[in-house]
Amino acid sequence: MTDRTTPPPRAAIDRAGRWVDRAFRIQATALYLFLYVPIALVVLFSFNAGNRTGELRGLSLRWYQVAVEDPFAMGALQNSFVVGAWTAVIATTLGTLAALALQRTPRRIRAVFEAITYVAIIIPGIVIGIATLIFFVNAFAWINPQLAGIWAAIGAGAPPTIGTGLHTIIAAHVLFTMAIVIVLVRARLAGMDRSLTEASFDLFASPLRTFVQVTLPQLRPAIITGALLAFTFSFDDYVIASFVAGPGKPTLPMYVFSSIRRGITPEINAIAAMVLTVTVTLLVIVSLIYRRSSRIAAAQRAAATADAAAGTS
Amino acid sequence: MPSPPDSTSRDVSADVELIDVTKRFGSVTAVDHVALQIERGSFYSLLGPSGCGKTTTLRMIAGFEQPTSGEILIAGVPVAGVPPYRRNVNTVFQHYALFPHMDVARNVGYGLRQVGVTRDEEQRRVGEALDLVRLSGYDRRRTWELSGGQQQRVALARALVNRPTVLLLDEPLGALDLKLRKEMQLELKGLQQELGITFVYVTHDQDEALTMSDVIVVMRDGRVQQQGSPEALYERPVNRFVAGFIGQSNTIAGRLSGLDLDGGMASVETPTGLVLNGRITDHGARPSIGDEAIVAIRPERLEIAPGTPSPTAGWTSVAGRIHQETYLGDQTEYRLATDLGQLVARRAHHGHAETTTVRSGESISVRWPDDANLVLVA
Ligand SMILES: Nc1ncnc2c1ncn2[C@@H]1O[C@H](COP(=O)(O)OP(=O)(O)OP(=O)(O)O)[C@@H](O)[C@H]1O
Ligand SMILES: [Mg+2]
User: Fold this and answer.
1) For the domain bounded by B248-376, which CATH number is listed?
2) Which residues surround ligand 2, an ion (CB under 5 A)?
3) Which candidate from A193, A196, A202 shows the least CB-CB separation from B84?
4) Homologous superfamily of B14-235
5) Each residue's pLDDT tens digit, A211-259
6) What is the pTM of this model?
7) What is the interface pTM, i.e. ipTM, of the complex?
8) Going along A10-157, which residue ranges are E strands?
9) Best label site of A185, A260, B72, B255, fewest CB within 10 Å?
């Protein structure tokens, strides 16, 4: 067949291939530039010594100082840290427990809950924002009169009222970050060797001791990762927070967004650069944890299957 | 805390006893009416092909599965409903199941820590156990950095350090290469004899079972086919399955033409009209004349000589030809085309160079004594 027809000259194929390669490379480069140049510019301009955002006049930490001394910015930063930390703690605890419970659930029910978990991750922030806001408004509209009634009955003076605030942001953030923790912990549980817990039972450890001494340490990378991701997502979120935040208590993204309406100042760049630093640091830690635990897992598998020839030592 | 089954029942000689144990998973019967008496200090092997219920049997003794029916006794005490962490039995898992987040010493000391042994005592016994498996100095090593053979020893030390009544081993050498496996076989056997602990050893490797065991239990489809010493199983397999599974056999099919059930003797007539006399190995069998039967003959019982067969009383002789000759180092295997079909003969070399008197393609006579004939009716 092919031995009769003359194949296209080799050089032509090589040349075409080179062009395709080059086109892909250019495309990829363009994409990355598009993604990261704006971010790089924000960081660069945060070191601007001049007064205007548009022109770079020497480098300095001047705007960082302005940002740090800005009580509103720092208040918002503190709010973000509080919300992020609580979100991480609550989402990790509840998510881990939920994942453990799912492990023991009959398969059919588990499938339903798994689907719901993924949905919670996929749902747009704006939907979560609206839905939780409506929920909170209705819940508070029901609870507050009840509280007023109770307080009136016992004659304890002015009744407390519950409204939106940092706690409502935390609640809304827990809602979807918990789903992330569940997915991470479930994946880790599924990959965990069941014989490890059996070995622990076999070596006289009760179920509780087995959980503490074997299961939990095995889950640790997933739990830490989940906590860090929950914090990151919470720290970065604008959409949900803007729906359910209480009056006068903005998170940092909310503060930044409202400041932008008054014009972008170099201070905003400095704040953005700081947020970026926090986020990137956390994500790097996450990937390091994951790299390490998957390396250990690979080493274990390798040692368990292919035996080293020097095993006689 | 686990309490080792108390010493009041120490005079019972069976360490583990399975009484008519059945285990079903849904519609699958993994273990089918199995009865075992595992004697103190013996090396018991459960041998059988994949899926025959070996692991399930072991897991029921360990307490990971509960029998559907029947009863299990450990050191004379019924253990129904006793969870694994309250049984004085330890397991060496097939893939070792070492805790990856602990170093070697902490892995080995795990069981001791659960029962509240003092730290000094833990350290001392862990040291002893590591000595025993020749891993002293490896205390602080990460388990996943060790080779398969070393991991296997850690798993062994982790189980032995608890001085269990019974040690259960599920294909512990399955992941090792052949050479290492042979070495570990000898080591395991040596350890077992030295410590006097009862071993229940699961394997699907008949050579392994033959070299190590005091008693072999051959299983198939959840049922015990035969149990006995390696010699008994090799010399007197009760059925076709055992004869084929333990060692190699030549099988010749035919029908029973003569029976002496009291004497345990039978004659089998082949379709070619040849009559073979031999022992019925299954004393429980009640066959009758005309039933189908198999005569099994071990390859090393066949004698080969050049020329044509001459009938001798007490011997079976057939004519044939050497089809293929395979040198196996310490012995030579001959594939023979005979009037009875293909037969395999094996001749050991006794130290000196074999002066082969037969060649491939040559006409020969094959003969074997009647006492080599094993008549299998099932
Ligand atoms: N948890 C379980 N659920 C359902 N079926 C099971 C379960 N465990 C074992 N079985 C079935 O029981 C039978 C015996 O399994 P078992 O693991 O005891 O075999 P085995 O002799 O150990 O085989 P192998 O040599 O392959 O390890 C198999 O048919 C298996 O599919
Ligand atoms: Mg098995």
Assistant:
1) 2.40.50.100
2) B 55
3) A202
4) P-loop containing nucleotide triphosphate hydrolases (3.40.50.300)
5) 999 999 989 889 998 999 899 999 989 999 999 998 888 999 999 888 8
6) 0.77
7) 0.82
8) none
9) A260
